[in-house]
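Worked example 3 (structure in, sequence out).
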């Protein structure tokens, strides 16, 4: 689970391209809809709408890195998830993990490889690459991976290069007093974890027994890397879906749909 917990965390966090998810205090959508200027830069009727949006996102990159509080856009650099609970009870993977202060640098360096927005059908398809990520988090965990017991508490860190994500989203319009708002109906995320390096685990457990387990597990996990990756990636994807949905829906609640991608100039 050592390196794989990292993969999982990197993925859900970063694909998610999110941050500071208030786990115990759900963020309130701002009361008054607020429409920043940049939202009217790309017109729905533009035959090159996708190119326009990619260009706009690239221009907004410095703001995305810092976050846009009025639009509920969380800070990307670094991206922080205060708390993350993982609980899986599958045949090959029984794990309870409690991760804290998951902090990831490099998410704002995302590259949009392709984008396909259909504003009439409210559909979006996007392919992203995250060239370079570095992450740190604290976690305690207990479980069995491929029948191998692991238990411990410590700090993880590591790098990951060239992570690829495909995102597909489907929206629906919701009527409110202030107008119609877009909300996500479904979102699918497929991730291909990148190359990992520089992976570190520093135990903060007082149990020698736990530490001994982790030492043995390291070797075991190295030998079963591919299998582990196949096991953990879907969990990372599911977690990403949860995080992304919450964040995207919060953002969409701040701006009426008619102000996103205006029909005409
Ligand atoms: C969270 O982790 C980051 C990076 O490791 C660190 O700078 C920050 O102080 C930590 N915050 C808390 C609340 O532990
Ligand atoms: C890991 O990422 C950090 C921060 O981007 C970087 O300084 C360091 O060189 C990277 N290490 C490796 C082994 O890629």
């Amino acid at each position: 689970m050592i390196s794989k917990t990292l993969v999982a965390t990197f993925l859900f966090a970063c694909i998610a391209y999110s941050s500071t998810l208030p786990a115990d205090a759900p963020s309130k959508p701002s009361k008054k809809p607020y429409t920043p200027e940049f939202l009217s830069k790309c017109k729905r009727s533009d035959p090159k709408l996708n190119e326009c949006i990619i260009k706009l996102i690239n221009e907004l990159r410095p703001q995305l890195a810092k976050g846009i509080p009025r639009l509920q856009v969380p800070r990307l650099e670094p991206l922080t998830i205060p708390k993350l609970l993982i609980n899986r009870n599958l045949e090959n993977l029984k794990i309870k993990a409690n991760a804290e202060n998951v902090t990831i640098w490099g998410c704002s360096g995302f590259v949009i490889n392709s984008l396909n927005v259909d504003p009439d059908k409210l559909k979006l398809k996007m392919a992203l690459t995250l060239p370079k990520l570095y992450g740190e988090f604290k976690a305690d965990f207990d479980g069995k991976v491929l029948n191998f017991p692991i238990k411990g508490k410590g700090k993880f860190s590591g790098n990951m290069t060239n992570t690829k994500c495909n995102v597909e989203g489907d929206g629906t319009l919701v009527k409110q007093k202030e107008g119609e708002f877009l909300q996500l109906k479904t979102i699918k995320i497929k991730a291909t974890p990148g190359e990992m390096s520089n992976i570190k685990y520093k135990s903060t457990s007082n149990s020698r027994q736990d530490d001994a387990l982790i030492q043995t597990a390291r070797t075991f996990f190295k030998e079963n890397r591919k299998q582990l990756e196949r096991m953990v990636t879907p969990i990372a994807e599911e977690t990403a879906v949860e995080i992304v949905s919450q964040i995207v829906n919060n953002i969409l609640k701040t701006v009426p749909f008619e102000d996103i991608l205006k029909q005409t100039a």
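Notes: The radius of gyration is 20 Å. The pocket of 2-acetamido-2-deoxy-beta-D-glucopyranose (ligand 2) is lined by residues 105, 132, 134, 159, 197-198 (CB under 6 Å).
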